[in-house]
């Protein structure tokens, strides 16, 4: 309770501004939210149309400064952190045309306007302020509509981790190919054109450097073949187990010439990646529901490419299709659960535990004496670290629409290997108006404030002051139809 009271006392002025704008948004949402519902509109006996919308919009303050940007914020760069304290702004629209008993056209487009988003397995950064076509495919059902075949570009998404800002690790993004699915399994093959970066040498065999004296990077076309499979097995009491396997193979195709003087790009070796595991879904039983995932993931990494531990920057080099600050292998387990205490409310919980192994030995970092950065302890090297994120949010229902939650998030790394690793404890009181009246609501307006405590001064305020205690407020909407 102390943290809740302190939170509101310290940020009252900033919070009032945030609430004011939030109320304006709220009034407009109340008047218009039914328009975007994901419904099928029957145009004739032969065809129908579907529309859907996902919107996450935040107005934030940090310290005593009101900002529309997302910096500084309570996000943890290298692992899961609370979505109540921070989540990227996005708008996603879905559109479909269904010609009855023949074919459906599916379209989905996403737009992020203040933060790069990274997904696993490529992994690939999706730039902000750019429209991303997630789905554009034709779906051909059989006459009984028990199975279907698809052709085009498609994204597969699995159950989200409600309390965290990250996506499900099994998600398959923008597969370009074809696939088959029925009530028991789905399978697909795809070929995507991506970009990989490599170094180069001049005609004398010397490494080409950039203006800072580091190896200069040159882009190459990279073709990625993916084979994806997931199943669905019904267990006792309505429980479901989904085994999942995704295999990828990377092949470079590019002109090796850099310029007319004979400079040559270095060859990028072919490589592969995979993720294997499963999701255990638990339906609502005795007031409890949720899902648990277990996975092992291996990504293509270059041992010569090491993170720069003095900055947060990274780059792709050589055969590595991933940034050097991204782990090569990950073993993980996550759980997202809901506990109902009808009619008073409930408790939302989530945790993610991962063992991350990097491609090469890295210096073990410690907090510097001034607490403004991390530095090598000068003694230890390591390839692996364990990362734990835990979040719990008790929720009280004033009514089924008006909900008050207290989100408590803890982030921990067993040893710091990356310059942006930090342990943290963040408390976030959050007030929601839920349109769907659910505990894990996906249609709501919210106002919240967050008090974050970090084990070093990783956060930088607008005046360039570094701090290990950060107060922020958030208000906005989260709508999924």
Report on this structure.
With 481 residues, the chain is mainly β. The chain has a single domain (2-480), classed as Maltoporin, Chain A. It has 2 helices and 27 strands. The strands form 4 sheets. The protein has an 18-stranded antiparallel beta barrel. Strands 6-7 form a two-stranded antiparallel sheet. Strands 12-16 form a two-stranded antiparallel ribbon.
Short description:
This protein is mainly β. It is built from 2 helices and 27 strands.
In helices, the fraction of residues equals under 10%
Spatial shape: globular
Structural class: mainly beta
* CATH fold-type name: Maltoporin, Chain A
- Low-pLDDT stretches: 1-37, 64-68, 309-318
CATH superfamily placement:
Porin, LamB type
CATH architecture title:
Beta Barrel
Number of domains: 1
Gyration radius from CA atoms, angstroms: 24 Å
Strand content: over 45%
Describe the largest sheet: 18 strands, antiparallel, barrel
Walk me through the topology.
Elements: H1 2-10, H2 12-32, E1 39-42, E2 47-62, E3 65-67, E4 90-99, E5 103-112, E6 117-119, E7 124-126, E8 130-141, E9 147-156, E10 172-182, E11 185-198, E12 200-201, E13 218-231, E14 233-234, E15 240-253, E16 264-265, E17 271-285, E18 288-298, E19 329-341, E20 345-367, E21 374-397, E22 402-413, E23 424-434, E24 443-454, E25 459-460, E26 466-467, E27 469-480
Antiparallel strand pairs: 1-2, 2-3, 2-4, 2-27, 4-5, 5-8, 6-7, 8-9, 9-10, 10-11, 11-13, 12-16, 13-15, 14-15, 15-17, 17-18, 18-19, 19-20, 20-21, 21-22, 22-23, 23-24, 24-27, 25-26
